Amino acid sequence: MQPILSRLGFHEPTPVQRQSFAPVLSGSDTVVLAETGSGKTLAYTLPIIHMMLEETGGESGPEVRRFESSRKQALLLQPNRELCRQARDTIERIAPSVGISVSNLMEHDADVDADILIATPTIAIRWWRGPERVRWLVLDEADALLAGTFKPAGRSQYPVEQIIAAMKLDGKRKAEADGTARAPAHYVRGEERQRQKAATWRSKQFLFVGATMPNAGTKNMEGHVRAKFPTAQWVRTDGAHHERAELRQFFVKVQHEQRDAALRHALAHGPPGPALVFANTLGTAKQAYAALADDPARPSGLFHSQVHPEARSALLAAFAAGEVQVLVCTGLASRGIDFADVAHVVQYQVAPNAVEFMHRIGRTARAGKGGVSTCLYDEATADLAELLRDATERGEPIDHLFSRKRSLRARIKRQGRPGLDEAAGMDDA
Question: What is the rounded CA–CA span in Å between residue 157 and residue 249?
């Protein structure tokens, strides 16, 4: 495959790709955590394609072969339509060249018999042909896909959990059929019992990928994944849960009535080039968009989930082409969308939590390029913003803030502002 990769411009693996290839190729369940813009899609796709080619006898030229019943599929789950399209575009730069077919199930001409299927969980469970054909299950932006209650009765209703359960059950049936299943002894408890259970779905491989994995409080996603997949290998780059060195950050405290003027000032005095503006709700996004609508020098657009998918695609294309220079967004745009060369990210409102903050600032300073982030915050959101600012100034990871909420303010007012280390040990407010 290396000559094909070189011809397509892939000469040197990124750090996350270099670290991920071996555990994924080993067949182990794997968790891949790396900063945004680091090449995670190819970090899991290239090993999967390699294993597909090994199972089918190697590369077969540029023609795409039709699916055979013995040929295993990969199912790639994404949180939204835009990320499904983006993943397909990335994978199609490589897969067809080696005879691997790719299909986005979100599109009207989807092929459910393709080798690599891409979809949101809801669409996947509606259209896939079942777990029997699927060898690899990838949860990209895993923390977003797994978000929700941890109560078993509630989780069982989520499409993503239903897909995981169906995959495990099919793996168990296959293991029992070929005599490789290991029935755990009743007296075995805890992690060892989970390890023995994991041996029964060895015909399946589960991959969890993302820039963040909350590891504290009531949304301890890392603990959930470790409990359900105790044998998984964990890959973390040095940049995971860190702001990148190429990113310059500014935190600006404003009064409510100053916010629109501060937004215009940040954009006017920030770096030239494409800019993203983030708001927490549709209402405030519309307010930010209205504050910029009278600037003919920098055309702006409004991007949110209520915009028709085709109109969203057209808006992203216009932004990429420079026809729209400022894109005002809700959280829909913070997750994984590979905006090219975004120079400036402005948070019209500080993100509601540290996870969302990381994803927002991850839209700039990608692939080794520089970028600027400006965070506007007010008295009501000062505590989270200033904890984030302090961590940034110290060059520390912010994963200990993943459970921090703005209601920290009540405790800080009672007890005084704690140091960063003390705040890291506080329970959720």
Answer: 40
Could you give phi then psi for residue 7, rounded to 5 degrees?
A: -65, -30
Write the pLDDT tens digit of every residue in 165-179.
999 999 999 888 877
pLDDT digit string, tens, across residues 80-135: 998 999 899 999 989 998 899 999 999 988 999 999 999 999 999 999 999 999 99
Distance CA 148, CA 138 (A): 19
The residues that bridge with 33 in the sheet, in sequence order, are 210, 236
349, amino acid identity: Q
Yes or no: say if 339 and 13 are a contact pair by the CB < 8 Å rule: no
Q: What is the DSSP string of 294-359?
A: T-TTS-EEEE-TTS-HHHHHHHHHHHHHTSS-EEEE-GGGTSS---TT--EEEESS--SSHHHHHH
Helices 354-361, 382-394: axis angle to 10 degrees equals 60
Contact indicator for 273, 343 with CB cutoff of 8 Å: yes
Beta-sheet strands, E only, within 187-267:
205-210, 233-236, 247-253
The 10 Å CB-count burial string (b at 16+, else e) for 100-111 is bbbbbbbeeebb
3-state percent breakdown (helix, strand, coil) of the chain, nearest 5? 45, 15, 40
Q: Is the Cα dihedral 48, 51, 56, 58 positive or negative?
A: positive
Measured distance CA(337)–CA(342) in Å, rounded = 11
Q: Which is nearest to 49 in space by CA: 20, 23, 72?
A: 72
Q: In what order do the strands lie in the sheet with 233-236?
A: 102-104, 116-119, 73-77, 134-140, 205-210, 30-33, 233-236
- Partners of 374 in the β-ladder: 250, 346
Q: Which of 86, 55, 61 is nearest to 4 (CA)?
A: 61
> Which portions of the chain are predicted below pLDDT 50?
59-67, 241, 404-429
Q: Are 130 and 174 in contact (CB under 8 A)?
A: no
The structure tokens listed for 166 are 């169906």
Pairing of strands 116-119, 371-377: unpaired
Helical ranges in 8-116 per DSSP H? 15-25, 40-55, 81-91
The predicted-structure confidence for 322-337, as pLDDT tens digits, reads as follows 999 999 998 777 676 7
**If you search the block for the tokens 């803030």, which residue do you land on?**
401
